[in-house]
TrEMBL record:
Keywords: Membrane, Transmembrane, Transmembrane helix. It comes from the Bacteria. The chain crosses the membrane at residues 6-24, 36-54. This is Uncharacterized protein. It comes from Oceanobacillus limi.
Length: 61
């Protein structure tokens, strides 16, 4: 179960990072602003993925 969720998380992070990259290029952001946007989105996505993993793990018990 753990390995399946890791693969799922990597796919989700890749999709969101590609969407964020397209968003930043469309708005023509500078590099400093892009770095902060990527950092915030990746941290939020990691929090959501960890909390969903804990929820799935608790529902299996």
């Amino acid at each position: 179960m753990f390995y399946i969720f890791i693969i799922y998380a990597l796919i989700i992070l890749f999709i969101f990072n590609s969407l964020t990259h397209k968003f930043c290029t469309k708005l023509e952001m500078n590099q400093n602003k892009q770095a902060s946007v990527f950092r915030v989105i990746n941290i939020m996505m990691l929090i959501l993925l960890v909390s969903s993993y804990v929820k799935v793990l608790n529902s299996m018990i």
